[in-house]
Design goal:
- The complex is a heterodimer of chains A (267) and B (319).
- Chain A is an alpha/beta fold and 267 residues long.
- Chain A has 9 helices and 10 strands.
- The longest helix of chain A has 18 residues.
- Helix content of chain B is 79%, strand content 2%.
- Chain B is built from 13 helices and 2 strands.
- Classes of the chains: A alpha/beta (267), B mainly alpha (319).
- The complex binds adenosine-5'-triphosphate and magnesium ion (MG).
């Protein structure tokens, strides 16, 4: 069986040739099978977000290839890759249109990859479907379908962004620290929703997190990044047996022990 | 002295001037709606309009002089405006030029284009010679003509608002609004934000060109300078409409339609204020300065309000 995602020898240098030159990705290779749920950890500036952005096509990569579901998307602009992807960002503001209603946001997402025509932007049948989806979330948002998303809390917005990511089943779900801006209780709830959506839809997913426990407890695979490379890749039973102390040791080994002032959470 | 000043003001002259200014406001409402689309929905301050307004006027007048019907001339004025908007859109999206600068470049270029279209800086059309769509003559003429003309203008604006309401409710229109609200999210949802930007600039400048075409007929001439400061008038209409009616229309169904009506009323109010100010004998040379100050003040209102509220909040929190 072919892979759902192949990242082949991807390089990305920011501000090349200037004093601010930064090698953000330095030959990344990664292959995901259908249904894989990989958690991604690594220190600040390790290149985690850059890897996800490279997959999403936020800018062009300098070298390498990105293949999603067998299609080479390396040269596709961001908006043309969107049909393959569902994305949730660290900042809850980023994933939704604040001045538009919850239902309108979902309708926009439902048309990801389709042609946007002069038909009315949202149908009655859709609204009913969204009502059920929101009800399933259990956040009481189904009664506020036409409220502007800008009025919602960060956690509510992330939950809606997750729904929007799954509304058109993507080949790949990209979660970039999507719970980092939330309080612990909300973060746990959003994480639970993420798990549920991934399981129910059988999605292939990548989740960046700074929480080592979350990285171990969620998904079937874990990779650690350092200085633009993947330095550790573990799956299956071996991953299940991982302990925070193991990750810590790995991290120390790679970085020479300089994690003291890092954001990484060990609890 | 003061008494002398007040007795010199003739209330009747104000009353006489008002119908003309309401008509003018209704015509400029077409442009104000165009400005509203880019400024509010796309979040793009488009300075093309100062040029594309005159382009619409020039195209309409030259076509009418060439024997084209005044109505058909307006269609072409609309298309000419769209082309101007497309240039700004491509300068911005395909060539990466910042939005404000892209608009200024097109505006400057249009000055030459408009001169080229007209062959000189001013071209007249006589209402006696052509069956014009709009004319100052209809306002000053007999009551029946006047009534019909106002009914026509108001009806046209309402039709335009209905069309825009429909368009921005479609899948395509929603994609435009998403682009204006959060372009990163729009791209993540598969929306070609560059295309949406160009499309919206074309639609907006089409309306501005249309306004230019109507206004040129109304005043009986197109002038290469007729669009100077148009953006300020458009913004003034948008902001007056929002500030005065914003609370009234928000949170209802059809809010968007009401907002557009508020913008149209904003355009009428703008011209009414201008008339009153001129009637109070402010020298007309100061008109542009006055307009700029008014728009700056209204633009500052939301900002200052926010600041004031934060200050109050802090005081309350301290107490
Ligand atoms: N658009 C950009 N322009 C310039 N430099 C960038 C850009 N994006 C990322 N970088 C740089 O690339 C490096 C990798 O950044 P990246 O955001 O991928 O790190 P990360 O692993 O996600 O870190 P964090 O945990 O802090 O989110 C950093 O040094 C960052 O400053
Ligand atoms: Mg990051």
């Amino acid at each position: 069986m072919s892979h759902m995602l192949e990242i082949k020898d991807v390089h990305k240098i920011f501000n090349a040739g200037t004093i601010n030159q930064k090698v953000a990705l330095n030959g990344v290779n990664l292959q995901l099978d259908e249904g894989d749920f990989v958690t991604i950890i690594g220190g600040n500036g390790a290149g985690k977000s850059t890897m996800l952005n490279a997959v999403a096509g936020v800018w062009e990569i300098d070298r390498g290839q990105i293949i999603i579901g067998g299609d080479d998307v390396t040269n596709l602009p961001e908006y043309k890759r969107a049909p393959y992807l569902g994305r949730v960002f660290q900042d809850p503001m980023n994933g939704t249109a604040a001045t538009m209603g919850i239902d309108e946001n979902m309708a926009i997402a439902a048309r990801r990859g389709g042609r946007r025509t002069l038909r009315w932007g949202i149908t009655k049948a859709e609204k009913e479907r969204y009502y059920e989806m929101l009800k399933d979330l259990g956040l009481g948002l189904e009664d506020r379908m036409t409220s502007k998303v800008g009025l919602l809390s960060g956690g509510q917005r992330q939950a809606i962004t997750l729904l929007m990511a799954a509304i058109q089943k993507p080949k790949l779900l990209l979660l970039d620290e999507h719970t980092a801006a939330l309080d612990p209780k909300t973060a746990a709830k959003v994480l639970e929703i993420s798990d549920k959506i991934i399981a129910e839809n059988g999605l292939t997913a990548m989740m960046v997190t700074h929480n080592m426990k979350d990285a171990i407890n969620h998904g079937n695979r874990l990779v650690m990044m350092h200085e633009g490379r993947i330095i550790y890749d573990v799956a299956g039973e071996e991953k299940k047996r991982l302990k925070v102390s193991d990750l810590l040791a790995k991290f120390e080994e790679a970085s020479g022990g300089e994690f003291a002032n890092d954001r990484m959470m060990f609890v | 002295m003061l008494l002398e000043y007040f007795t010199s003001l003739d209330p009747m002259s104000l009353v006489r001037a008002l119908p003309g200014n309401v008509a003018q406001g209704l015509i400029w409402a077409v442009m104000a709606l165009g400005v509203y689309i880019t400024f509010r929905l796309l979040d793009f301050a488009d300075l093309t309009v100062d040029g594309s307004l005159a382009t619409g006027g020039a195209v309409a007048v030259m076509l009418i002089r060439g024997g084209v019907s005044p109505a058909a001339a307006l269609v072409l004025a609309f298309i000419a405006g769209m082309l101007a908007g497309m240039v700004t859109g491509l300068l911005h999206t395909a060539l990466g030029i910042p939005g404000i600068l892209a608009g200024i470049l097109t505006q400057i270029a249009l000055y030459s284009v408009n001169l080229g279209i007209m062959g000189k800086s001013n071209q007249a059309i006589n209402v006696d010679q052509y069956q014009l769509i709009a004319s100052l003559r209809y306002v000053t003429g007999d009551p029946h003509t006047r009534l019909m003309f106002f009914a026509f203008l108001i009806f046209s604006i309402l039709v335009l608002i209905a069309l825009l309401y429909w368009f921005f409710g479609t899948e395509l229109g929603a994609a435009v609004r998403t682009t204006g609200c959060n372009s990163n999210m729009a791209r993540a949802q598969g929306i070609n934000t560059n295309f949406m930007t160009v499309l919206t600039l074309m639609l907006s400048n089409g309306l501005v060109g249309l306004c230019g075409g109507i206004y040129a007929q109304y005043q009986g001439a197109a002038d290469v300078n007729m669009g100077r400061g148009a953006i300020v008038i458009g913004l003034a209409a948008v902001i007056i409409g929002e500030v005065l009616f914003g609370k009234l229309v928000s949170g209802k169904s059809f809010t968007f339609a009401y907002t557009m009506m508020a913008v149209a009323v904003g355009a009428i109010l703008y011209y009414t204020v201008i008339t009153v100010v001129l009637w109070l004998k402010m020298p007309s040379d100061y008109m542009k300065l006055f307009s700029a100050v008014v728009v700056a003040a209204f633009l500052a209102v939301p900002h200052l309000k926010g600041k004031h509220q934060r200050k109050r909040y802090k005081e309350v929190a301290k107490a």
